[in-house]
Amino acid sequence: MKNILVLGGTGFVGRHVCEKLHRQGWRITVPTRRAINAAAVQHLPRVTVIEADVHDPAQLLELVTGHDAVINLIAILHGNEEAFERVHVELPLALSEACLADGVRRLVHISALGVSLDGPSRYQRSKARGEELLRAADLDLTVLRPSVIFGAGDRLLNVFARLQSIFPVIPLAGAGARFQPVWVEDVASAVAACIADRGLPQSTVGQTFECAGPDVLTLAELVGVAGRYGSKQRPVLPLPAFLARLQAATMELMPGEPLMSRDNLDAMSVDNVATHQWPGLSSLGIVPASVHTIAPTYLGQRGGRSKLLEFRQGERP
What we know:
Layout: E1 3-7, H1 12-24, E2 27-32, H2 39-42, E3 47-51, H3 57-64, E4 69-72, H4 81-102, E5 106-110, H5 122-136, E6 140-146, E7 149-150, H6 157-166, E8 170-172, E9 178-179, E10 182-183, H7 184-196, E11 208-211, E12 217-218, H8 219-230, E13 236-238, H9 241-253, H10 262-267, H11 291-294, H12 304-312
Parallel strand pairs: 1-2, 1-4, 2-3, 4-5, 5-6, 6-11, 7-10, 8-13
Antiparallel strand pairs: 9-12
Helix pairs in contact: 1-7, 3-4, 4-5, 6-8
């Protein structure tokens, strides 16, 4: 039995990844600032939760020591230049240095579709710089680039479903932005397949994979999916550019994590869809599930919970 370190293992994607790795027989270490945040994975017998600050290089080196592989899922969607630099650039650099110092070669890194060194948003540029630093290190690296991720507990369709249960109309910035939403279980399966790295046509080491679902939808269409399956479908009012930026700026001032920021709007000026420059989920033996099939299983439909459990146990839709 091998040991694996999962950074970001307490998050939305992380808990699904931990479940997949647990089934593969890995012993999993999940660091977190507060152990109470790890309730979603602490029930797994082979998961060890450790309170630690992964942004502290000394603690990160201590965490890496003794593991056979590392998965990095840590990312932020909102923040200033300093925050993006710290999470998307400095952490990958520190992680690569810790891996090299301890002789841990295998690393799977979760990035995002649309990343580019000259991208329009801080998010895209910082993620691209992080990828570049990891590729420059002498590691057995695999990079996964997902589009927006949906599934039970997401902050995408669930949020838009709740909004449509409250408001009679949805004024929407970036309504025409295009996405290729991917199910969280498919992303977790991709991570597990890369770590197992067997039974595939070729090794995943040194490869980049685009993780995208079968549907290309605008943001307005995603809002429609959320309303149709989750609460009540409301009319969408696309906002012109100047009002969109005003709405995003206002949301940034509200308490908690904003639903949308001006940096998000900048990112949405580029289609978040597969380029086919890199292999996709099918190269990992995964048939991606449609948002139209999965969304009804968790957005308030009767019987949805039991259906979702069936899917997660291997009965693909």
